[in-house]
Design goal:
There is one protein chain. The protein is an alpha+beta fold. The chain contains nine helices and 18 strands. It has three domains: 9-87, 2-Layer Sandwich (Uridine Diphospho-n-acetylenolpyruvylglucosamine Reductase, domain 2), CATH 3.30.43.10; 92-221, Uridine Diphospho-n-acetylenolpyruvylglucosamine Reductase, domain 3; 225-305, Uridine Diphospho-n-acetylenolpyruvylglucosamine Reductase, domain 1 (Alpha-Beta Complex). 29% of the residues lie in helices and 25% in strands.
């Protein structure tokens, strides 16, 4: 959702008045705890505010990007030359009268918290998502998944605001989902996710919680704590990125303040005030080493935001 345009700060000040923040440190808004400043920032609190802001930004042709939880993104040390919209639209509504039951959520809602909320109602289907740190919008955008399931298996409809086609409800087929990707991710800047409705199934709180506890315990035992972006690379066909990185002898490898986790090699941990450049250099080293040893090009699961040196 970026564009190589000058930043119309005067127009942004008029459009958003005292809601606009300027020169904001983005490291405070990402799970990697790295990255430079944004020229401007706007926090939106519901889907209507998000829609209004995006329509205005498109109208003035202003460069912008949207941040939810700040996971799965790496912001350049040079920051972002434009407006960052921080999505805090987080209303969740559960409908048990429909068949099957569903949960509707604004795109800024925490996905894992939503999964835990429906579990308390004895509703099944989102146990796999209980430990996902991102937002519902991020899950729709990237077809988030874990434990053998993904967002596409639950999605009924997503409310999308498209730059050319306006606002409408999109199906799984229209979103063209693949492994950790969608048409939205393949065409950044063209659309924004406002909300989503997910299908569930009737169960009992005890049964749902038991399954969720199993997934949570597995995550705690296999994934590291600390400041990270989440999984760095997509799993190649019939293999695992973490296995390949470990087999290449890269567990524990460090550049500057960031380290390939000794617990799970597909996680990089910022444990010594790493710069975004440190993380990017380690990412490229891992890609190159795995390719040299196994002739497999690891594809990034994270997205890099801002201006980066030529690769």
């Amino acid at each position: 959702m970026t564009a190589a345009h000058s930043v119309p700060l005067d127009a942004l000040r008029v459009a958003f008045a005292n809601r606009l923040q300027e020169n904001v440190q983005l490291a405070n808004y990402t799970t990697a705890r790295a990255g430079g400043t944004a020229d401007a920032m706007l926090i939106v609190h519901d889907a209507a505010e998000l829609e209004d802001a995006v329509r205005r930004l498109w109208e003035m042709d202003a460069p912008f990007t949207i941040l939810g939880s700040g996971s799965n993104v790496l912001v350049s040390d040079s920051g972002f030359r434009g407006l960052v919209v921080v999505n805090r639209a987080k209303t969740v509504k559960i409908d048990v009268r429909s068949g099957p039951p569903t949960a509707w959520a604004e795109s800024g809602a925490n996905f894992g918290a939503m999964a835990r909320q429906v579990a308390l109602r004895g509703l099944s289907g989102l146990e796999w998502a209980a430990t996902i740190p991102g937002t519902v919008g991020g899950a729709v955008y990237g077809n988030a998944g874990a434990h053998g399931s993904d967002l596409s298996a639950n999605l009924v409809l997503a409310e999308i605001l498209h730059r050319k086609h306006g606002k409408g409800e999109w199906t799984v087929g229209q979103l063209k989902y693949g492994y950790r990707t969608s048409i939205l991710k393949q065409t950044p800047g063209e659309a924004v996710i406002l909300s989503a409705r997910l299908k569930l199934a009737q169960s009992t709180p005890a049964e749902v919680q038991a399954r969720m506890d199993g997934f949570t315990e597995h995550r705690r035992g296999s994934q590291p704590p600390g400041a990270s972006l989440g999984s760095m690379f997509k799993n190649p066909a019939e293999d695992y990125a973490g296995r390949l990185i470990e087999a290449a002898g890269l567990k524990g490898t460090r550049i500057g303040g960031v380290q390939v986790s000794p617990v799970h090699a597909n996680f990089f941990i910022n444990d010594e005030n790493a710069t975004a450049r440190d993380i990017d250099r380690l990412l490229r080293l891992v890609q190159q080493t795995v390719f040299e040893k196994f002739s497999i090009k690891l594809e990034m699961e994270i997205e890099e935001i801002g201006e980066w040196p030529a690769k």
